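Practice problem: predict the structure.
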Amino acid sequence: MKAKVLNVLTVCVVTLVMLSPGVVVFGIIWERHLDLVKSQNLAYEVNKTTKNAPALAPQIEVTHSPQTSIKSSDRNVIHQMLTVAEKYKFAAILQWFFLLTPICVGLGILFYDRYLVHRAAVLKEQVEMLERLWRQSIEQ
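Answer:
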């Protein structure tokens, strides 16, 4: 029974190890696809707005203050780039989590099984030593 459970867990861990990178990649690609669709919709809305009412089109403001000389559109681009970088960091962390968790579980099961074998061997040695001592005490 114990061997069957170990075999089932081994198959589950190997399957999870094989599928987890694909799931992570699919998640990243799906997120990029959603961002692309969102940007296409925004571009369509901006084009529709500028064609219908050119006076309502967003104007790029340039600030000439001594502290900052960055355009507001540049700030938006920088903010978007930082947001994308954070998403990729999160995706990388998630990918490593999905990759390392099944490996750690598999190694944990393997080491625990080896530990049980070691404990059984130590117990067997202790029992044999006690039996020898018991026989020696009976013979004397």
